[in-house]
């Protein structure tokens, strides 16, 4: 039998066409005589499919194969010989021939292994037969898949043509398996049963879970089975299963729930009225604080000076980033040549229950040191801050002269108002507009005047949000968590506010951008608090919040609020009970159970999308011809989500990606999950285009799977928002169409298709390493109505960039923790090596020093640094997500590493964008290189293939 066993090797009928060391085809011609019907041939072909990663149905076509199987009848013996590419089966009768074929396929193995765990997929709908990941469907992912299939044919139905199609079907089911538990014919007790029976019309029926029946006439059934065996899943452009998508993708229009308008006289009018009410203006110094651009403030100063000529002086200062503007507009001009250093004493914030950090007033003058460096001869390093609890006022600025004399340049007390935070537990103290009367350096009278922003914010939080809360009080289970309470809030706000681009990095001053962020995140916190109050846990998915801010210089403020209702239909439960075929075997109709209603639908081929919503993705999809692109799901708004699969081509019709991952290492990279983090999308497209240039024979060693844009609905919104403000952060567009962080609902039944792509890739590819490319703000993130910091929902601060790019490494806390930690250490080391001595390292060092100066030196726990050479790489759980839909947390038994990158790209253009793109590429290349260098060891135990998982990097 040694010669016979050579059948199952490269010396026999297995082939490695692309010479990557992996079997990728079967070179076998079965010269089956008409009328010879050994069902054991089905098992033989199943073994053939099992042995390869790729397959075409050429068993019964002579196309120059290496091995030819022929049959000879004998009255004396049943035996097999294999010599010079000829496999000759001599048999006495069909029964013995079937036994011989099973012996050739499985005879040397014990197929009754009850010791090991087996991973079975299920067929609960006809559409599960060929799923995105192969044969059968399963909620969970696994690097192993056990084939337990029983094929039974009514005796009167068997023909040569049917036998051939059954061989094809069996080979394809085994192709997607890493283990065959037992023979497919001549036995009972399989997990899935497939029966061929007689009937009037060709119908494929799911009689119950895992019980499939194909019935029809003797002449028509082979045609139907051929169509089934050769069908492609709709994600690959085929027809199979797409009939269900037509039902699932239908979504209702959201009706208008609340519509309100707001307008106000404006804070300038309130300032003028306050001035009219003041007394003792004669020979007084007057300070006005106003949330308006500089030109409007200067106009008001001129008007007030004209209206009140008896005043000594009038200054109209900004009430947004007051300290920064004060130094910018008043003190810089006093920085004479003999001043070489500046010391800015800053009041320490210590109000009870305040959300503001102790360094809040340092935050409010960011990035004053770099601004001074750009405008004067004083270096940023020579501008230092001290934090003083005893300081009278908010700021005191001193110039250090060449003779070490300390010269006071000015003092400032910033006016603030008090406001309750939306959680009902904290208060905030935003800087505010005001009018002050000063005599002999002492404030003798002050009137606090709310800014236009504060006026609208109060109206929104105290009137609109409670009204909305009342409207959604009668909600269904799951709303606020996996489905929203409302569809979306659309806020159009028109105000006269400052937009100033600074000559420092990507920094800008924008009070309306700050309002955008407050409206978005504070709305989320409002409903998070509602959830705590009514359920004991936050509502983290209330609905979309879309603040559209419109700068309208010199005009009075107004706003329009439109809130759209969520039609809380549950996730549509669709199963296909039967599929009919035409006489020539073409798909005809599918009968579906849709929420317990039967719907019949004609089966049509899925047309691949011709245009993608993202311009660069669209262009790439049109031009590329090297890689396979599949579409496993559509977003909630109906945008197809492409997945790029990069591997060594096999040239075969059918391929098993799970087997490819078994034989080779696989990395999965997700880009564009948060749509306002814009650089990862072009970065991953450029990376894919050039991978084969970066690594010689990359795909002979490993596979690369990419989602170029995971969140097209979010991108649809960010594109709309960027039209008016192309350099804002636009966090309102980070989540999906209804404001849901869809990462939290992966591996659940959901109407949000964007949540299904990641799980589908895990099921199909079982990757070794997962990389999730993200972004952080490229400029200051402030929220005056949330404590002037980034939102309190975050355990650490993101108010300024901490790096050009940094990494986050996740490890399982228990299962394989030490191995995960070693792998993470190897990745960090390699990423550091790739970044060392590059522009990225220089920029990371620059931002680290900025991060230390403005945050880490004062509050290291809120501004943490976990330093590797050239890059921050965080592993602490305060920064690292740990929810169960994260790959390494869900599958610690076989995922080797799970990494996040964060580039400072919210939102940048030009050279800054190119730098972020390059940073992502270098980061990802380093991880690919780490996996590329790792070794895999394939293990074979009978008809079970496996390798050591998690892989050791």
Automatic annotation (TrEMBL):
Q: Which Pfam families match?
A: Peptidase_M14 (PF00246)
Q: Gene3D superfamilies given for it?
A: Zn peptidases
- Coiled-coil intervals: none
* Every Peptidase M14 domain range: 630-736
For this protein, the record's InterPro entries field holds:
Peptidase_M14
Q: What is this protein called?
A: Peptidase M14 domain-containing protein
Which species is listed as the source?
Answer: Sporosarcina psychrophila
């Amino acid at each position: 039998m040694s010669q016979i066993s050579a059948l199952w090797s490269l010396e026999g009928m297995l082939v490695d066409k692309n010479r990557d060391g992996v079997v990728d085809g079967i070179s076998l011609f079965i010269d089956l005589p008409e009328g010879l019907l050994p069902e054991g041939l089905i098992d033989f072909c199943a073994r053939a499919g099992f042995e390869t990663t790729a397959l075409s149905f050429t068993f019964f076509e002579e196309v120059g194969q290496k091995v030819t199987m022929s049959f000879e009848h004998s009255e004396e013996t049943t035996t097999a010989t294999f010599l010079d590419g000829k496999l000759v089966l001599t048999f006495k009768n069909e029964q013995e021939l079937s036994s011989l074929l099973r012996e050739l396929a499985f005879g040397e193995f014990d197929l009754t292994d009850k010791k090991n765990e087996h991973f079975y997929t299920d067929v609960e709908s006809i559409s599960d037969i060929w799923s995105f990941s192969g044969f059968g469907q399963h909620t969970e992912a696994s690097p192993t898949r056990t084939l337990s299939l029983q094929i039974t044919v009514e005796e009167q139905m068997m023909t040569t043509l049917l036998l051939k199609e059954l061989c094809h079907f069996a080979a394809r089911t085994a192709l997607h398996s890493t283990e065959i538990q037992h023979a497919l014919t001549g036995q009972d007790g399989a997990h899935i049963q497939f029966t061929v029976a007689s009937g009037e019309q060709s119908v494929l029926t799911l009689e119950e879970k895992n019980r499939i029946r194909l019935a029809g006439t003797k002449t028509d059934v082979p045609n139907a089975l051929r169509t089934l065996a050769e069908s492609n899943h709709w994600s690959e452009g085929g027809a199979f299963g797409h009939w269900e998508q037509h039902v699932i993708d239908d979504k209702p229009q959201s009706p208008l729930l609340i519509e309100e308008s707001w307008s106000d006289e404006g804070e300038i009018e309130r300032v003028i009225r306050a001035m009219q009410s003041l007394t003792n203006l004669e020979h007084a110094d007057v300070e006005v604080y106003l949330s308006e651009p500089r030109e409007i403030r200067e106009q008001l100063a001129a008007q007030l000076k004209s209206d009140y000529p008896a005043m000594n002086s009038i200054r109209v200062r900004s009430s947004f980033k007051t300290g920064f503007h004060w130094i910018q507009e008043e003190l810089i001009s006093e920085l004479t040549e003999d001043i070489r250093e500046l010391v800015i004493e800053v009041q320490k914030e210590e109000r009870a229950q305040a959300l503001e950090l102790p360094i809040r007033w340092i935050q409010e003058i960011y990035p004053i040191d770099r601004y001074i460096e750009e405008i004067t001869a004083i270096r940023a390093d020579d501008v230092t801050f001290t934090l003083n609890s005893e300081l009278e006022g908010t700021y005191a600025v001193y110039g250090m002269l060449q003779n070490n004399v300390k010269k006071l340049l000015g003092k400032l007390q910033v006016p603030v108002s008090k406001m309750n935070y939306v959680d009902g537990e904290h208060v905030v103290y935003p800087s505010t507009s005001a009018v002050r009367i000063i005599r002999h350096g002492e404030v003798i009278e002050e009137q606090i005047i709310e800014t236009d922003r504060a006026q609208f914010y109060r109206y929104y939080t105290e009137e609109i949000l409670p009204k909305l809360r009342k409207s959604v009080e009668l909600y269904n289970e799951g709303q606020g968590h996996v489905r929203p309470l409302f569809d979306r809030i659309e806020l159009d706000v028109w105000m006269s506010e400052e937009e100033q681009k600074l000559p420092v990095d990507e920094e800008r001053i924008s009070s309306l951008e700050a309002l955008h962020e407050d409206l978005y995140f504070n709305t989320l916190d409002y409903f998070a608090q509602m959830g705590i109050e009514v359920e004991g846990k936050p509502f983290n998915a209330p609905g979309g919040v879309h603040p559209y801010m419109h700068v309208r210089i010199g005009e009075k403020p107004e706003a329009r609020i439109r809130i759209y209702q969520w039609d809380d239909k549950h996730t549509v439960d669709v199963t296909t009970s039967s599929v009919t075929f035409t006489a020539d075997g073409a798909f005809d109709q599918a009968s579906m159970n849709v929420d317990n209603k039967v719907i019949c639908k004609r089966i049509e081929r899925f047309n691949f999308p011709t245009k993608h919503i993202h311009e660069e993705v669209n262009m790439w999809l049109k031009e590329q011809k090297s890689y396979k692109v599949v579409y496993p799901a559509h977003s909630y708004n109906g945008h197809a989500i492409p997945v790029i699969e990069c591997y060594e081509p096999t040239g075969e019709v059918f391929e098993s990606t799970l087997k490819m991952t078994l034989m080779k290492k696989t990395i999965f990279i997700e880009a564009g999950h948060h749509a306002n983090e814009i650089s990862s999308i072009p970065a991953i497209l450029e990376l894919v285009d050039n991978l084969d240039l970066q690594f010689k024979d990359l795909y002979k060693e490993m596979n690369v799977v990419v989602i170029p844009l995971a969140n097209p609905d979010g991108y649809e919104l960010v594109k709309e928002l960027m039209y008016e403000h192309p350099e804002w952060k636009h966090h309102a567009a980070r989540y999906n169409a209804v404001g849901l962080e869809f990462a939290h609902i992966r591996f659940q039944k959901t109407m949000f298709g964007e949540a299904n792509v990641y799980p589908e890739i895990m099921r199909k590819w079982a990757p070794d390493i997962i990389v999730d490319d993200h972004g952080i703000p490229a400029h200051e993130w402030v929220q005056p109505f949330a404590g002037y910091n980034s939102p309190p929902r975050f355990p650490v601060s993101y108010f300024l960039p901490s790096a050009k790019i940094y990494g986050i490494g996740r490890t399982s806390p228990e299962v394989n923790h030490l191995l995960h930690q070693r792998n993470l250490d190897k990745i960090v080391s390699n990423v550091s090596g790739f970044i060392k001595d590059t522009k990225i390292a220089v920029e990371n060092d620059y931002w680290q020093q900025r991060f230390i100066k403005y945050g880490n030196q004062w509050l290291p726990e809120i501004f943490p640094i976990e330093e590797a050479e050239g890059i921050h790489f965080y592993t602490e759980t305060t920064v690292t997500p740990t929810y169960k839909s994260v790959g390494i947390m869900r599958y610690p038994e076989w995922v080797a590493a799970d990494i996040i990158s964060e580039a400072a790209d919210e939102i940048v253009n030009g050279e800054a964008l190119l730098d972020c793109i390059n940073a992502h590429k270098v980061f990802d290349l380093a991880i690919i290189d780490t996996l590329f260098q790792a070794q895999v060891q394939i293990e074979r135990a009978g008809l079970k293939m496996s390798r050591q998982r998690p892989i050791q990097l």
